[in-house]
Design brief:
By secondary structure, this protein is an alpha/beta fold. It has three domains: 120 residues, HUPs (Rossmann fold), CATH 3.40.50.620; 115 residues, Serine Threonine Protein Phosphatase 5, Tetratricopeptide repeat, CATH 1.25.40.80; 142 residues, DNA Cyclobutane Dipyrimidine Photolyase, subunit A, domain 3, CATH 1.10.579.10. The chain is built from 19 helices and six strands. Strands 1, 2, 3, 4, 5 and 6 form a six-stranded parallel beta sheet that branches. Helix 1 links the parallel strand 1 and strand 2. The longest helix is centred in the first third of the chain and has 20 residues. About 1% of the residues have low confidence. Bound molecules: flavin-adenine dinucleotide. Flavin-adenine dinucleotide binds next to helix 9, helix 11, helix 14 and helix 16.
């Protein structure tokens, strides 16, 4: 009997345009997803991500079964679970997606060196391998604009492959029951807003893309910074979980054509840039890219941090954003920047605290993008906004939410601000000056 091939799914929870399936067409497959709460350490999945994962697997399992396959669910330290699955099924080949996440890279390296197992990695989540885009001098990029130009110069991606119409199932082995993983919140059930806002899974991703291309892409460049209107795609959780490939998204936008396409593709390149940075700086999720920032005199203020998390800072646009996040698991990009800036600058609370909260509450939580974005806002990133540029949240609201639609929708009753904006700004600037290095460079434009 032909030995089956083990497909190790992680964040490519789709059938269409998935090289793990196309590459292994016609071979008996054992398709596995492993829930690992051990290896990632502090980066184990947060609450909102668990909710999404449950829904996404609940959608993928039956879709795979409908074409003859079967989704096997297992739990534990992923490298040993994969080795065990291979031993159980007689698989000698493992196929998985390339990743920039350091813990997963280590797990992949462990599988690759397991005797009797061969690991093949495929590009399932990104447009380019994080090593592929390099400067003329052969070094990784640290600045976005030339990186994005280099991405564009590579030309369009290959046309996406359709979903397989048939999959040959490998040996029938035991699978956990999804319900037993308890990924959904019970008491309290905080997920009502998430259920209302999202349809996880491949079909939901395609619907979201189609709606955006039909309705909003023409106005994208002008309106993407206005949180009060649905001007962006909201494709981020679908991309983060790999329910749609970035190549499919890019080519669909090109095929639709018209205004807004270039600006939108640029955002897909920001996603690539974040993965590129994490690949080359594996400690980026924990440590500042500019080492100087390790000496920043951050404040330890649990009460202020809790007020920020709950949307009770008294600053309308910040509170609106934090409440949108709590309610739907998502926040508009402009507001993410404003809320993040308020935390690290006006409150002088470490960016890692904000990053951890976003990690727990975002349905699109992505290690690379989250870390790169927080460092960009904090000023500690390679290509970051200079620290001394401090967003005034009220002026940002006046500019991007002129008629108050967004703040009115989410912020609730006005409260007394927990910090005076001018005093918070002065304190942040003093802290920065205390680092002993003048700000240098100008920003490259915001993500
Ligand atoms: C502090 C902070 C933390 C963030 N954390 C995350 C995160 O964990 N996961 C995540 O996916 N995005 C994160 N972002 C980036 C951005 O806010 C979201 O990707 C975007 O709001 C998603 O909305 P959309 O799908 O409608 O985007 P669109 O405007 O429609 O953009 C299309 C796609 O491009 C990608 N993209 C858009 N903006 C960015 C960006 N600034 N950087 C990288 N990729 C981008 C996303 O995959 C997005 O779906 C963060 C931003 C900030 C400021």
């Amino acid at each position: 009997m032909t030995a089956p091939v083990l497909i190790w799914l992680h964040r490519e929870l789709r059938l269409a345009d998935n090289p793990l399936f196309t590459h292994n067409a016609g071979r008996p497959l054992v398709v596995a997803y492993v829930l690992d709460d051990e290896t990632p350490g502090r980066w184990k999945l947060g609450g909102a991500a668990r909710w999404w994962l449950h829904q996404s697997l609940a959608s993928l399992g039956p879709a795979l079964a409908a074409i003859g396959g079967r989704l096997v669910l297992r739990r534990g330290a992923v490298a040993s679970v994969i080795a065990r699955l291979a031993a159980e099924t007689g698989a000698r080949e493992v196929h998985a997606g390339e990743t920039a996440e350091p813990w997963l890279r280590r797990a992949q390296a462990a599988v690759a060196t397991t005797p009797g197992l061969a690991l093949t990695l495929h590009r399932t989540r990104l447009l380019f391998h994080p090593e592929a885009i390099r400067t003329g001098g052969g070094t990784p990029y640290g600045v976005f604009t030339p990186f994005s130009r280099a991405c564009l110069a590579r030309g369009l991606p290959a046309p996406p492959n359709p979903a397989p119409s048939r999959v040959a199932a490998g040996p029938a082995i035991a699978s956990d029951r999804l319900e037993d993983w308890r990924l959904l919140p019970t008491r309290p059930d905080w997920a009502a807003g998430l259920r209302e806002a999202w349809t996880p899974g491949e079909a939901g991703a395609e619907d979201r893309l189609a709606a955006f291309l039909h309705r909003a892409i023409d106005g994208y460049a002008e309106q993407r910074d206005r949180p009060g209107i649905a001007a962006t795609s909201r494709l981020s959780p679908h991309l983060a979980w790999g329910e749609i490939s970035p190549a499919r998204a890019w080519l669909a936008a090109e095929a639709r054509g018209g205004k807004g396409v270039r600006a939108w593709i640029n955002e897909l390149f920001w996603r690539e840039f974040a993965a590129h940075l994490l690949w080359h700086h594996p400690h980026m999720a924990e440590q500042p890219l500019r080492p100087l920032f390790a000496r920043m005199p951050w404040r330890h203020d649990p009460a202020a941090r809790a007020a920020w998390q709950r949307g009770e800072t008294g600053i309308g646009i910040v509170d609106a954003g934090m409440r949108e996040l709590w309610s739907t698991g998502w926040m508009h990009n402009r507001v993410r920047m404003i809320a993040a800036s308020f935390l690290v600058k006006h409150l002088l609370i470490p960016w890692q605290d904000g990053e951890a909260w976003f990690w727990d509450t975002l349905v699109d939580a992505d290690l690379a993008t989250n870390a790169a974005s927080w460092q960009w806002v904090a000023g500690s990133g390679a290509d970051a906004a200079p620290y001394f540029r401090i967003f005034n949240p009220d002026l940002q609201a006046a500019k991007f939410d002129r008629d108050g639609t967004y703040v009115g929708r989410w912020a609730g009753k006005p409260r007394r601000p927990i910090v005076d904006l001018a005093a918070g700004r002065a304190r942040a600037l003093a802290a920065f000056r205390a680092l002993g290095e003048p700000a240098e460079g100008a920003p490259e434009g915001s993500p």
